[in-house]
Amino acid sequence: MKGERTFREKGGFEMDISMKAGAEKKPFKFIDIPDIVTICLQQHIGKPNHPIVKEGDMVKTGQKIGDAKCRMVVPIHSSVTGYVEDLKEVYNPVLNRKEKAVIIRRDGNDEMKYLPEYDLDRRKEIVKMVKEAGIVGLGGAAFPTHVKLSSQGIKKLVINAKESDPNLVCDVRLMIDKPAEIVKGIKLMARSLDTDEIIFATRTEEGQIPELERIMKEHGIKVVRVRPSYSVGAEKLLIKEMFGIEVPSGKFPPDVGVVVNNVSTAYAVYRAAYKKEPLLSRGASFYSDLTGIENIWFRNGTSIRQVIEGLGLDIDRFDRIVIGSLMMGWSVGSSDAPLLKYSAGVTALTPEYSKPYEKQLPCIRCGYCDLVCPVDIYPSLIMKAEKADDVKALKRYNVLDCIECSLCSYVCPSQIKLTKHLWQGKNKVNK
Q: For residue 275, what is the DSSP state?
């Protein structure tokens, strides 16, 4: 709401959102194309890709460098033109483990290998194009978009422009910059799902994105304004908020006739269809306690260091760097870690900024984490089960329903990072 600085949510927690105010007016700052990119081969939910290039190969911008034969796989492409300098395992800052990556040294050119022509009037062709372009959910989940667009019996397509994280505004900035392109991408996604009912969910106020609203009205796209609350941006929570429909545990939005796609994903679909470009770059938000929020645009494989120095900042001023938002991001040990194509944010914090989980105390069993959980699971019990390696209990407590919003950690009076235990619990169940 206009002028609102905080919001109160389930369980009475209050969060400061004042840092968003006006940040969407800042245009994207394009980070220089680096001389070396490190492109992780695992940049989607699903099976990992295998490299299809070798050391010494010459590759073009947009050339496929990794792929695998599996439905839950999207290929990965080179974001620069140059030579493959190495194939090795590097630290993947999102998966928090080492994964195979392709290291490419740029040769100064930017010669593009474009996608082939696709018949955009045919549903299967659109889905094929989206897969070959390497498009994943750009809200942070990295779910293969072509799998969503292959769903049957879909009644509603929801475009998620909620962007509920307290320090991310890149989606709103994109809506201001690229309204016609976004709508073209949305229409293609609707065509692939064979649905005419499109709902655009946004936290923006009336008049904040006037051109996009005008074009959407012309195309019969309904705009729904959602409360500026965290963490209603998660797709299952968004569906419940908008339609009163609860997606059952273990099920997904298509099971209730709804597909949700991020607004930046719609723009990526547009670029694949009309520019013949695979997913090579994206917009994101950079936040530090020195600068506030800046909107950036970077190529896949650019390092955090290159982003920070590209903004004219001294990397040595920061002692904690987070990939993602303040709430959902994960701290990384090195500023040389690469950004991924679904990295929506970078957060850099100085030594003066608080380290809330540095001195964790024993759990006092207050139950506040359970009270505020937006998906109604029990973080305190899940933490106990995870510590005991009790996989049966983890399943019984529905750990896989966790959306990793970090609200349980945020409200914990003992400053326990419960999210870490929930994340580890999910990994133990999925083994």
A: S
Residues 230/164, Cβ–Cβ less than 8 Å: yes
b/e sequence 389-427, b meaning 16+ C-beta within 10 Å: ebeebbeebbbebbbbbbbbbbbbeeebbbbbbbbbbbe
- In this prediction the pTM is 0.94
Within a domain: 363? no
Helices (H), 34-161: 123-132, 145-149
Give the list of residues 6+ apart from residue 374 with CB closer than 8 angstroms, or none.
10, 231, 232, 234, 237, 403, 405, 407
Domain count, the chain: 4
Which 3 state secondary structure label does DSSP give 346?
strand
Closest CA to 140 of 157, 158, 162: 162
Residue 1 lies in a domain: no
Computed over every residue of the chain, the mean pLDDT equals 92
**Any domain includes 11:** yes
In this structure, are 322 and 260 located in the same domain?
Answer: no
DSSP letter at 140 equals: T
Query: For 245-277, how does the pLDDT look when each residue is reduced to its tens digit (9 = 90+)?
Result: 999 988 999 999 999 999 999 999 999 999 999
Which regions of 74-197 does DSSP assign to beta strands (E)? 76-77, 82-92, 97-106, 156-161
pLDDT greater at residue 130 or residue 353? 130
Domain end position, chosen among 106, 130, 164: 106
Domain residue limits at 135: 6-25+117-274
Given a cut of 70, whether residue 7 has pLDDT beyond it is no
Three-state DSSP at 296 gives strand
Whether residues 251 and 123 share a domain: the answer is yes
